[in-house]
Amino acid sequence: MTPFLQENVVFREVYCFLGGNEGNASWCGGDGLLPGGFEWAAYFAAGFVIMFILVNAALLGAAVFVWSERRLLARFQARRGPNRWGPWGIFQPIADLLKLIIKEDIVPNAADRLAFTLVPIIMLMALLLSLAVMPFARNTYLVNLNVGILYIIAVSSMSTIAIFMAGWSSANKYAMFGAMRGVAMLISYEIPLVLSLVGVVLIVGSMSLVSVVEAQTVPFLLVQPLGALVFMLGISAELNRTPFDILEAESEIIAGYHTEYSGIKFALIQAAEMAGVLAASGFLATIFMGGWSGPFWSGQLGAFWFLVKLAGFVMLFIWIRATFPRLRIDQIMAFAWKFLLPLALINFLVTAVQVYFFGFYQGDVPGELTRNELWIMAAINIPVALIAIGIFGRFSREKVRVPEPVFQNIAPSPRTMEVD
Amino acid sequence: MYGFGLAKGLMVTLKNFIRPPFTIQYPEERIPQHPRFRGEEFAWYEERCTGCASCAKYCPLGIIKIVTSEGGRSPQEGGHYDIDVFDIDIGRCMFCGLCVEACPYDALFMGSGFERGRYERQDLVITVDELREAVKKPSTWFRPQLEDSGYDPHKDSALDWRAVGREKWEWHQREKAGARIKFRPARVGDKTQEGDGEARS
Amino acid sequence: MAIRTEPVTINIGPQHPSTHGVLRLRVTFDGEVIVDVEPVFGYLHRGSEKLAEERNYVQVLTLTDRLDYVASMTNNQAYCIAVEKMLGVEAPLRGQYLRVLAAELQRAASHLVATGFLLQDLGALATPLMYCFRFREKILDLFEMLCGARITVSYMRPGGVFSDAPPDFWPALDDLMQEAPHLIQELEQLLMKNEIVLVRTKNVGVLSAESAIASSVSGPVLRASGVAWDWRKMDPYDIYDRLEFDVPVGERGDNYDRFRVRIEEVKQSLRIVEQCRDEIHPGPVRADVDAEAIDLVLERRGEAEKPLAEGPVRAELPFVLRPPAGAEAYGRVEAPKGELAFYLVSDGSIAPYRCKIRSPSLINLTVLRELLVGWKLADMIVTLGSIDINMGEVDR
Questions:
Q1: Distance between CA atoms of residues B127 and A115, nearest Å
Q2: Has the ipTM of the complex gone over 0.90?
Q3: What is the pLDDT confidence band of residue C1, given thresholds at 50, 70 and 90?
Q4: Domains contained in chain C, CATH given
Q5: In a domain, B25, yes or no
Q6: CB pairs < 8 Å spanning B and C
């Protein structure tokens, strides 16, 4: 029994109920339902219960998010949004899902069937795996990984592979366009995304998300404004949200990499995308807004505070989506490399100096930065952030050069009106 | 500073977020239609129709089909034709209203409906029986006499054939300030001759 | 070692979210960069010019509604002007005022649609589109008051308009005129200084004044290139010579300028509408003609039309018109999308012998290749949106 599983309330209770303390589990009193020698069954059952809860919560959360996004977008656009199914149209995503499930599941003739089928699974899997380390409330998480932040980034990058698989296996030029854009963009945005979290790791001294939450006597949004900004922009690029939604730019390449998907596969891809926004908001809330800690009753109301913060970030994502047009691919790349990367590096540098100055690693004992020290850091970092944005935010002023045609000497495409 | 325009845009959308929506819930609510609205529930007054088929002639699409037979008196003596068929193929109609404009006897009017979804195309043809039985709430399109009386097909009750004619036409003031044409009252058939006296005035 | 790549040809359209109808673009890409563009059209061909030869002069009017279906009023106006030239009649003053008023409202509506869809092509998820349509709906409500229809209006007739505006039109117009500046200001706040819009549209799709003139584009596309050419000023029809308005002109001829010129033209249109509203005075709205002088068939009211009065009789233009044989006319207006013209030839019958439509969208579309080669896929969509074509007019 790995120790960190004991920390999980649900797992522990289910395991104890079934398996008891047969396996010398000191954290569990009394006998279990199952006879001795069946600890593996208890282990399996406990794991299954957790998986079941998490997967359903994620999918249900995605459904609620779809509904709330459609409603809120409609309100931003001075419309009403779906309001027919159930009160305020809350069952609309269920109806959509039913419709998608009973639709024919089309696989194009020329498609690579295996890769085509694997895509929705990988996308959803990457998302669900990343939820494993999220602390939903105090002592409510699946695992308290000591490399939690690294784990999130590693797991969520898998969706890049899924996107490329989707584009390649669909045998569709639009899908291929979307996939190529996606690979170029997502890999570029990984770098500032990772670097933006280094500052947080330096301050906390641990990559565990639980430690991150506990270290936030001052919200890191104030202590790490640049980091938060870069993470926010980077994650919205990773999620294909406007203004970075070139992967599935509807007006340009129909639906991008999932042009050919229909039925339940499309539903799964959509669920993964939508739940991805929720997960990203959750991580933003955890890393930069203090997660489940609130102004009062953090222990009892932890889940409530967490949800409030998550909803705030979700609202922000929707608001941005409702307002902004999208950028072009080269502008997006320039944004990542010329704007976000320098900002992330500045943030890294400034934070490193500050942490060193405040004697964080004195005597090789990871200490805690006091509240006052964090406030001082915030007071320094906010002006630094504004200045840095002012300096590096000139990319839009940069004169756009008229590109030269690449194939000057190519034969023009046939100009006759042949039947095709 | 960079990003200022973006922030302004966010403020605009936020302002609209707070405002009430401008869309309406269609089947329950409806936008107010103007009395001039050109809709599909044609109002046709058989009493006024002589079967001249001007409407059929002037329809740009040729979707009005009229078949007449001789009525009680000969047309030369001022009688009228019996209308046997008066089909309007709404499925192809584009609601330009030229048939109404062409009607010399104020017998055909546009209606104000727009909900005629049907499962089969032939159900889209308005037949003469439907026209006879329909609740006649004519649109005021191209009928200044109705406009002058302030008729609103959405609020007021259905109109009788005596009430819609041009006999009582008080000239549409602004439109007719320069026109000096006199009109003879429209002819009507025998059957309705008796009650016609005051309507002609 | 360089990786060998080869260009990809994609058919964008005829079924594509942002080809504004059923335009098909055969585009050759090198990666994301456009190497060659070839517009292929004809998917919405309905033979309007041929159909016109089968219908009488008023019936043809209903065909013109369906050319540029977001700007029916100006189509009507161009056609009516052509017929009036053939007949040698002129619409009465109030009729002309009403025509100009309706046409300018239509111009505002059309430009709002163009702006909304340009932003939609930029990827703004329908928010500016909804704001534009919210404004346009109010204009369409006015059209419904004028003529009972919102899109396919058939409001004008040769010799004026079919009927005067109803009394409740004028208060509604006042309401709109009061509300309009706020709506436009809101749109400008949302878009004009938006960095993403700027970076996407500025210096993209530049059309120089020389090539704009050489390829005979017209309308906002020409004016954005810096050529102050507007038929309302150059060859004033109806009452435009009595009105005061400016012709907005762009500087570089890029997408931003085209977008900007449209917004400015909306403001100028509203200015014209305001002047029309203030200056209009009572009178007839449809031309009277001497019933004896022109060989008119007074078929519209049948026998009832026989005059009872003594002396010279003047009548409204009848339903069936017969211009003299051999008469021909070129009626030209500045439509929202450019110079829209109808060339009509009469053989003395009730239907035109020939009806040629000079549609601005088709001619503006011819510069597409010049604007696009060397740019990226995303720019192509935006440039196409900024040219503002309408397939109903391109294919006729």
A1: 59
A2: no
A3: low
A4: 38-360 (1.10.645.10)
A5: no
A6: 141
